[in-house]
Structures are given as structure tokens and as C-alpha cells.
Amino acid sequence: MAPSSRLFAAARPARIPRIPQHYRYLSTSRLLATPPPLHDPPRGNDPQTLSRQPPPAPPQDQEHVQSNTASASFLGTSKRLPEFSLTDKVVLVSGAAQGLGLVQAEALLEAGATVYALDRKSEPSPDFERIQKRAAEELGTTLYYKQIDVREVEGLNRIIEQIGDQHGRLDGLLAAAGIQQEVPALEYTAKDVNTMLEVNVTGVFMTAQAAAKQMIRFGNRGSIVMIASMSAQIANRGLICPAYNASKAGVVQLARNLASEWGEYGIRVNTISPGYIVTAMVEELFKKFPDRKRDWPTQNMLGQLSKPEQYRGAAVFLLSEASSFMTAADMKVDGGHSAW
Ligand SMILES: NC(=O)c1ccc[n+]([C@@H]2O[C@H](COP(=O)([O-])OP(=O)(O)OC[C@H]3O[C@@H](n4cnc5c(N)ncnc54)[C@H](O)[C@@H]3O)[C@@H](O)[C@H]2O)c1
Fold first, then answer.
1. Region (Disordered): which ranges (predicted)?
2. Is the CATH code 1.10.10.10 the one for domain 74-333?
3. 203 ligand 1 Cβ < 6 A
């Protein structure tokens, strides 16, 4: 297979879809005809411009405390680690059409945030619709979808500014959009290296910049989290992707510099460095290279591969006040892989 065709996520800008004018969607959330439109999703509560306290613990709290038959911990409520609450916060997640970004977006919604998914795909994965519906009906918040390629800097700024205008605030960004490509170093073309760096470094940088501009405009501080990789620190055994690894090292360093410049505005910038995650993309890879499914788990201290769900807590922690004194840091979540 030609190296360029091995891009896991093609770097071509996606086609802008025509948005149908009318959808029949009942307030009872029963679908009549077509599914709810991504760009005008079922709505939960809008974030408030004035800061509210974290929600009180649910009524079962007292009952659980007394009966001791069920857990009495309701994380993120007023009495149980309220600093984890993202109630009323507006958070962007790039690359949230699928994979890690989407799973982390759901965690942010559960913590109370209004979330905007930004992705180049014209349609997100089927799971997106389930989460969008759950946000409105079960979590009292809203998941929006905006199609944008992070390399389209003007459009990116326009969309993020509009989000700021709409809510009068912007509190967080989780930059998960990224591509991966396996090509031996001797065969890599300059064009492919540039594409990798354009998406994984410049794209992340420009997304962070657009978000920081809004955070500074509203003066409400903020938290920026960028998804790097354990591959920022190591050369992966048996996985040949020199440009990807260099790009992720770039993300880790970028975070330190952005943190040093934006700390004065109360904006924190950190990275998460995951180990191997079994996303749809990696499942496909295992079909082609079954030996990797066997070998990769043996390369970390826990003897297993990770699931996207194992990064939910890291996203909520870094985007919330729970990490308010943490900036310029890289949080490694790799089962000890890179420490061996
Ligand atoms: N899967 C792993 O094992 C692993 C390990 C470490 C780090 N990561 C990183 O985690 C992040 C998410 O990875 P994933 O496994 O969920 O991959 P994925 O391919 O399933 O998801 C990436 C998403 O980013 C979007 N995207 C790609 N290029 C874009 C662009 N130019 N503009 C806007 N959106 C764009 C894609 O459309 C896709 O929805 C990536 O940054 C990846 O490098 C993944």
C-alpha cells in the first residue's frame, strides 16, 4: 500500500453538508421522521452567565447515607468534591466526531458542561446522536456539532468566536483532533510530514489560540487540554511513525510555552499522553496486523490495552477546578509503558 494511503484519517477537507430546513422532533423526544439535526440538537439547559454553585446532591444522598445499602457519593455536587463540577461551563472538544474525543466529551457533559464538538467529518459516528440525546434528556445540558477542519484557521476562529458570542463565555478546550500515519523514515515524503505537522501541531496550536482569544475576551480564565501521546517521549517498538511521534513531542512542548504565556490570564494549558487505546481506528489496525493485538499489551506494566473510557476522569480533572494549580504539565496515562 502506498504510504500516503495509509493515513488513518485522511487530511482532505470534508464536504460541507446541506442542512435540511425542517425536522420534526417532538419535545417528548420521540422521533417522528428524521433524527435530530446535529447543528440544532435537542437542548438541555443553557449555561448561565453568572457563576452558580455546583448542584446539590440528589435526594437519594441522605437515604443512601442512612441506609448504607448504596454509595452516598455524588461526585461534583455541593458536598462531594464540588471542584470537579463543570456546571455552566462551555467547553470545546476538537476531534469529537468519534473515538477518544467523543468519549471524553460525554464525560464532560456528565460533569455538567455544555460541549461543542468540532470535527472535520460531515457526519459524526452513530454514537454521537445517542450522547446528544442523553445530554438533553438525562444530563440537562447540550452537545453541539460544528464541522470544521482545524487547518482552516479563519473558519475555526469564526466558529469559536460565535460560540463565545452565544454564551458570553468560553471555559475550556480539549484538543483531540489528530491523525496518524505509518511510514518508514527513509520513505517519508516532505508533503506527508507537513500534513502530519499541520494537523497535529499547527491545528492544535491554532485551536488553542482561537479558544484563548475568547477566554481572554470574556476574562473568565480557562483550561486547555491537548491530547499528546506516550509516543511524544518514546519510539514505539514495531510501530513506525516518525512524523507522528515528532508531532506529539511538539504538542507536549507547545503546552509548556502556551502555559507560560497565558498563565497571566488565568488560562492553564496541560497535555494528556495516552498509551495505546483500542478505538475503532486501532481495531481496524489489528485486523491488518494481528501480532500487534498480541504484542502491545505485553509492553506495559499492566499487561493490557486501554479503552477510551479510561481517559474520562483525566479530561474532567484537567478541565475543572480540581486541577486549578496545574499548568504546563503532561499527564501520562499509559499503563507504565513509557517508564519501562
Ligand atoms: N488511539 C490511540 O491509541 C492513541 C494513543 C495516543 C494518542 N492518541 C491521540 O488521541 C487523539 C484521538 O485519537 P483517536 O484514536 O480517537 O483517533 P480517531 O481517528 O478515532 O479520532 C480523531 C478525530 O479527529 C478528527 N480529525 C482529524 N483531522 C482533523 C482535522 N484536520 N480537523 C478536524 N478534525 C480532525 C477525525 O475526523 C476524528 O474524528 C488523537 O490526537 C491521537 O493522536 C490516540
1. 32-71
2. no
3. yes
Q: Ligand 1 within 6 A of 178 CB? A: yes
Between β-strands 143-147 and 172-175, what pairing exists: parallel, antiparallel or unpaired?
unpaired
Q: pLDDT digit string (tens) for 98-117?
A: 999 999 999 999 999 999 99
Catalytic annotation present for 244:
yes
Q: Is the dihedral of CA 312, 258, 93, 277 positive or negative?
A: negative
Distance CA 45, CA 272 (A): 29
Q: Which contiguous run of DSSP H or E holds residue 216?
A: helix 204-218
The 10s digit of each residue's pLDDT in 181-213 is 999 999 999 999 999 999 999 999 999 999 999
Q: Any idea where the domains of the chain sit in the sequence?
A: 74-333
Kindly report the number of other CB atoms within 10 A of residue 219's CB atom. 10
pTM of the model: 0.89
Mutate to test the pocket of ligand 1, among 7, 8, 100 (most ligand atoms within 8 A of CB): 100
The reply to whether ligand 1 has any atom less than 6 angstroms from the CB of 100 is yes
101 CB within 6 A, ligand 1: yes
Tell me, in angstroms, the distance from the centre of ligand 1 to residue 132's CA. 20
Report CA dihedral (90, 91, 96, 97) to the nearest 10 degrees.
Answer: 20
> Edge-to-edge strand order for the sheet containing 330-333?
143-147, 114-119, 90-94, 172-175, 222-227, 267-274, 330-333
